[in-house]
Design goal:
Distance between the termini: 33 Å
Number of helices: 32
CATH class of the largest domain: Mainly Alpha
Number of domains: 3
Number of strands: 11
Shape: elongated
CATH topology of the largest domain: Multidrug efflux transporter AcrB transmembrane fold
């Protein structure tokens, strides 16, 4: 790397290009003015879907199996209305529950199932008289069918809802209609103690609606940019140039998403935020160099000089950030993969805009330099001269301390065998909700009363009519018994559950018949009822009777639990097949949206480790090209690694967990904070060739130190805006990202200079005459 280029050395294609941009500023601005309307129009086309099922990739085999299953049995989603009362069998309580159920049943696209609805069918109606209430109490008390399904319990009656919803918009609209139908009971549940809404559909709607306020993040970032810009440059014209450039970057980025038919998801606010903070930081680097104009240098010539001087470092830093996010395309998680490709493309557009539109705006707006408007303080100048000597005196404590904190963070992340477990990824969507919300408290507080809220389906496929064979039905009943005895399973509901219910309604008891003749009769009933009994059609394909499903309800929420449950299901199936060989001809597949979501979230771990490793390799390769100095290639990445590892230690000590948002931090921080190190080493080596270590460090801090400081504040402040999110993972992402940016900057100004003193085995320059 050569010494700092002189003004006279600014020639060649790059200088000629920037000279053209400066001279033809109005042409450049006019071109962008023409591009802005279509970019804004495309940006407006981008929709938003924050539900957790947007995590799923359509090419995943389990996803395809689930869609095939839904083609047979429908795409119903399951929710629950839980009515609590001191005595749920009081006539006035049952009257309220009955009115709620009838109101919900009238909502198109909703099917209801409850103990009361079964009783109504069995007795040809229901009225809330004391006599009918007592008969209902006896009806549900003489069988365990309702209790096993979670429809009846101590102090509550439940209404099960099957929602025919395809996608987030239909789900939200359907639940909104349900809420309107029960609005009066929700406002005044008396004589009920309370009425609660539970289930994954409500969680999805909550997540979707909460993130639709993401525009507030960018309002906060804009305010932060305005305040910091006026503080740093004290120029309204400079502020206008910044805001117009950032607006174009945002329109171009989101407009690109529109051209791809993209859909914003729960992690998508990180895309425009990353674009804006990277663009702002780059503008700070460029403009901070521009304002440092020598008194005898013309403004236009100095502007070309500043652009040429910062071009390599800014290009390399944007490239590093783009690679950091682009590596996320390895992920099988659709929003994460989209995020990676969108940020990479957006950063390319940002690179073009900041080196064309911003110089044109600087020229047209005549943004002042510090020769024309000198800074009012020199605190950073004093700091820049003090840091080299100070870091030399404390070089060993600073380096050893940084290494110790990094090691501690690594141990907190990966664990210590036998002492500390590795950090795990939380995949339960409920944990993504604000813990202070009523829905979260209801789910966590009431789930222990129920068989569970997680749904896994066991899809059974055989030959024509196989599901109506008496021996197959008996085997399925045995299979359900084995499932219900499993500690992970709260309930197992299948065709034989409905048949037992039918026997119970007809007065024949709720037990599976042991007599062969009775089993034959029940088989015949299945064939007759399959096409006209709505509830039975959820469990048996009515036309060929070749397919059936068993719904397994559990309290399992994490991927490891679903893996254990899937293994148990197959084990119980083998045991049932041993007792009933007729089951052997059936093909068994476990499907379900809830376990699929958990699988997708869990798969973040290996894919993000791969993408992080790829990011490190590519960024290091870029350093090989940018920096010819061996130590610089190694040292340039150290502050970012330090910040990431200490951030993991912070997570562990504060109780934060890895989740779909926070697990993205490593790639985010590495890709974004590398900007500072690139600019640091670019100017360090610029002076190092002809100067000492102290001179090189002082030059670096004078030229780039102020920009590094304020660019880091912009990065941290931008991501800190996520702390207003209603979702804990997004809030944690904002807090941890801001902390990591500040840690990286701290390492830039402390551990990095200290390590350079040790690495080069150098000492400070002798004091000049008159210096202490």
């Amino acid at each position: 790397m050569s010494a700092e280029p002189s003004f006279s050395a600014m020639s060649g294609p790059l200088a000629r290009f920037f000279t053209f941009v400066v001279e033809k500023s109005w042409w450049v601005i006019a071109a962008y003015a023409l591009l802005l309307p279509p970019a804004a129009w495309l940006a407006m086309k981008v929709g938003q879907d924050n539900s957790i099922d947007r995590l799923i990739v359509a090419t995943d085999p389990d996803y395809q199996a689930m869609r095939a299953f839904e083609g047979v049995f429908g795409a119903g989603e399951y929710a629950l209305l839980l009515a609590q009362a001191d005595d749920p069998f009081r006539p006035e309580v049952l009257d309220q529950v009955d009115r709620i159920e009838r109101a919900v049943a009238a909502v198109p696209g909703t099917s209801v199932n409850s103990a009361l609805s079964v009783f109504r069918r069995a007795k040809a109606g229901f009225t809330s008289t004391p006599e009918q209430a007592e008969r209902f109490r006896e009806f549900v008390s003489d069988t365990d069918l309702f209790r096993h399904q979670g429809l009846v319990g101590d102090g509550f009656l439940a209404i099960g809802l099957v929602l025919d919803a395809k996608g987030s918009e239909q789900r939200a609209a359907l639940l909104a209609r349900v809420d309107r139908a029960i609005a009066s009971a929700s406002a005044d549940p008396s004589p009920l103690k309370s009425l609660h809404r539970l289930g994954q559909p409500y969680v999805n709607v909550y997540l979707d609606q909460t993130q639709r306020t993401a525009w507030r993040y960018f309002v906060i970032l804009t305010g932060f940019v305005i305040a910091l810009n006026l503080f740093l440059y004290r120029s309204f014209r400079t502020l206008v140039a910044f805001l117009l450039t950032l607006g174009m970057c945002l329109a171009a980025c989101v407009g690109y998403i529109g051209t791809r038919g993209g859909m914003l998801t729960i992690v998508s606010p990180m895309v425009p935020m990353t674009i804006l903070v990277t663009a702002t930081a780059t503008l700070v680097y460029i403009h901070s160099r521009f304002v440092q104009r020598p008194p005898n240098r013309p403004v236009d010539a100095h502007q070309v000089f500043a652009l040429c001087n910062k071009f390599v470092a800014c290009t390399a830093s944007i490239f590093a950030t783009a690679v950091g996010f682009g590596a996320l395309i390895l992920s099988p998680i659709r929003p994460v993969r989209d995020m990676g490709s969108w940020v990479a493309a957006g950063l390319f557009l940002t690179w073009v805009i900041v080196f064309t539109l911003f110089p044109a705006l600087q020229k047209v707006l005549a943004t002042p330099t510090w020769t024309e408007r000198p800074p009012e303080d020199d605190w950073f100048l004093r700091l820049a001269h003090a840091i080299p000597k100070w870091s030399y005196r404390l070089r060993w404590p600073l380096v050893v301390g940084a290494l110790g904190l990094s090691l501690f963070g690594a141990l907190m992340l990966f664990g210590i065998p036998g002492l500390v477990s590795p950090m795990r990824v939380v995949t339960d969507p409920v944990e993504m909700m604000d813990h202070d919300t009523e829905l979260y408290r209801d789910i966590r507080g009431l789930t222990p009363l129920l068989p569970g809220l997680s749904i896994t389906q066991v899809w059974l496929r055989g030959s024509l009519g196989s599901m109506s064979e008496p021996k197959v039905l008996s085997g399925l009943n045995r299979f359900q018994q084995l499932l219900e005895a499993d500690p992970d399973v709260g309930a197992a509901i299948g065709p034989t559950t409905i048949l037992r219910m039918i026997r119970y309604i007809s007065g024949e008891g709720d037990r599976w018949p042991q007599n062969a003749t009775e089993r034959e009769e029940l088989s015949g009933e299945l064939e007759a009822l399959a096409s006209r009994e709505p509830l039975l059609r959820h469990f048996v394909e009515p036309h060929t009777l070749a397919q059936a499903q068993v719904t397994v309800v559990s309290r399992v929420t994490e991927h490891e639990g679903f893996q254990r449950l899937a293994a148990s299901i197959l084990s119980h199936w083998k045991e049932a097949t041993t007792e009933y060989p007729a089951l052997a001809e059936l093909q068994v597949t476990t499907v379900g949206l809830t376990p699929l979501n958990a699988k997708m979230a869990q798969s973040l771990v290996p894919t993000l480790v791969q993408s992080f490793a790829l990011t490190v390799v590519v960024i290091f390769s870029a350093f090989l090209l940018v920096f010819r100095n061996g130590p610089a290639r190694v040292m340039a990445i150290i502050p970012s690694i330090f910040a990431i590892l200490v951030m993991f230690a912070l997570m562990r000590t504060t109780g934060m967990m890895l989740n779909v948002a926070t697990i993205l931090i490593a790639s985010t921080i590495l890709g974004t904070s590398e900007n500072d190190q690139i600019h640091f080493f670019y100017h360090f080596l610029e002076k190092r060739r002809e100067g000492t270590i102290e001179q090189a460090l002082t030059h670096t801090l004078l030229v780039a130190g102020r920009a590094i400081f304020f660019a880091t504040l912009i990065n941290a402040g931008g991501f800190l805006a996520f702390t207003i999110s209603g979702l804990p993972p997004i809030r944690q992402f904002g807090i941890l990202s801001a902390a990591a940016f500040l840690l990286s900057m701290l390492a830039d100004f402390t551990a990095l200079p200290a390590a350079l003193w040790i690495l080069f085995r150098a000492k400070p320059d002798p004091p000049k005459p008159g210096e202490p």
